[in-house]
Amino acid sequence: MTLSVEERFENSWSLADNIFHDRLREEAAVEKPINLRNPFLFYEGHLPSFLFTRAMKALNVESFNPDYDYMFQRGIDPDVDDPTKCHDHPEMPPQWPERSRVVEYRNRVRETLRDNDRMHQLDSMGMADMSIEHDLMHIETLLYMVLQLDKKFKRWSRVEVDAAKPLLHRISGEDFPDYVRIPEGTAKLGRNRETKKQQWGWDNEFGELEVQVNSFEASTLPVTVGEYVEFMRAGGYNRESLWQEEDWKWRKRESLSHPKCLIPKSDSAGEWEYLTIHCTMTIEEARDLPIYVSLGEARAYAAWKGKRLPTEAEWHRMAFARPGDGEETDYPWGDEKPVAGVHGNFGFKYWIPVGVGRFPAGKSAFGVLDLVGNGWELTDTPFEPFPGFEVDPDYPGYSSDFFEGKHFVLKGGSWATETQLIRKTFRNWYQRNYPYVFSKFRLVSY
């Protein structure tokens, strides 16, 4: 079902309000659970500020709070290895404004957009999707922060976990092969700019690149919590030989001994619990869920198994190629539009990850499952422009600020990725040692 532009704006606002009002306590506003990000209050102001400064100014709407427009204009993504290095952004204030003032600013921006048919005007200019998708991506990154937030600042409940309990483990009786061979062939990355008229996209999606991919084997399922815990118990975090040099330096500097989605069990040394945005789960409960790790951690696990991570082109080929004729489909399962809970765990269907392999209707033509949803898929390809890339003048720093070799491409989507973002050419990216993303991985080999 295609939603109207009004419905899409209201949906993104409802999701944001669900976090700021329903999942966080009032005192959480100034908390900063991830040091490499701003406090929650900044993002509550940033979403309306972006809408006003990037989109509504194109409609010549006069600002009613220039100070907030500027203060909340752009967030931060500092270098993990040297946080003093960061792209251009406004200086943070010595003291944040009262939350009630920020909420008042947000509400006024929304009401201004609702007036005088402005949503349709932005839609006709191609700027509605930019604003909505910007908010949807921030909603997901806000949930990374909620995951790391001390439970005293959030509304802590097992209700959604208990509701999803039947989905926490693999389907009984399903027997998928561990690996499938993907034959050699071409991966057709990117999009022709003319297709933006039919489907909006970010600037890094455009430009076209054909990559000849050699035959390789791919795991049919992502690595699970239970499998990754075996790596931890085998001393994987202390074996330098398994880690790439820069990843090992980061692990040592951060004294990292486990993924950020696991926390040490308080009453049992050497044991862990699995962290959700709602509560903790036992490792037994979580054993079939995908493990969320950084690229550096995933590389170390892959080395332990004698495997590696896929490139962006390999991931694309196992997801979209059709055996035999070299043609590609729009989605791993074919050309049918994505349906949350049928083709995968996305679109906030469950609000938590579920067991791997739960959605066989979403498997690719080669039999690879869970390529979309339940966690972004890490690739070992640096985030770079495709040939013919052009900066989007409406948001010039969106991609180009991060073509520096430290960010890597992720594909697919997580449980917290709205369905609008599920498309073949969408590219997410994070620094290789940023450990907070809902990012899973699978293994490949030649």
Keywords:
446 residues, paralog of FGE (formylglycine-generating enzyme), 3-stranded antiparallel β-sheet, 12 helices, globular, 4-stranded mixed β-sheet, Four Helix Bundle (Hemerythrin (Met), subunit A), 3 domains, alpha+beta
Could you explain how this protein is built, in words?
This protein has 446 residues and is α+β, with helices and mostly antiparallel strands. The protein folds into 3 domains: 5-153, Four Helix Bundle (Hemerythrin (Met), subunit A); 163-223 and 304-445, Alpha-Beta Complex (paralog of FGE (formylglycine-generating enzyme)), CATH 3.90.1580.10; 225-290, no CATH class. It has 12 helices and 12 strands. The protein has helices at 5-23, 40-55, 66-71, 99-114, 118-124, 128-148, 159-163, 225-233, 245-254, 283-286, 295-304, 312-320; strands spanning 179-182, 185-191, 207-213, 216-219, 262-264, 272-275, 280-282, 376-382, 407-411, 428-431, 439-440, 444-445. The strands form 4 sheets. The protein has a 4-stranded mixed sheet, with no helix packed on it. Strands 1-4-12 form a 3-stranded antiparallel sheet, with helices on one face. Strands 5-6-7 form a 3-stranded antiparallel sheet. A hairpin with a 4-residue loop joins β6 (272-275) and β7 (280-282). α2 packs antiparallel against α6. The longest helix is centred in the N-terminal third of the chain and has 21 residues, at 128-148. The two termini are 41 Å apart. The mean pLDDT is 92.
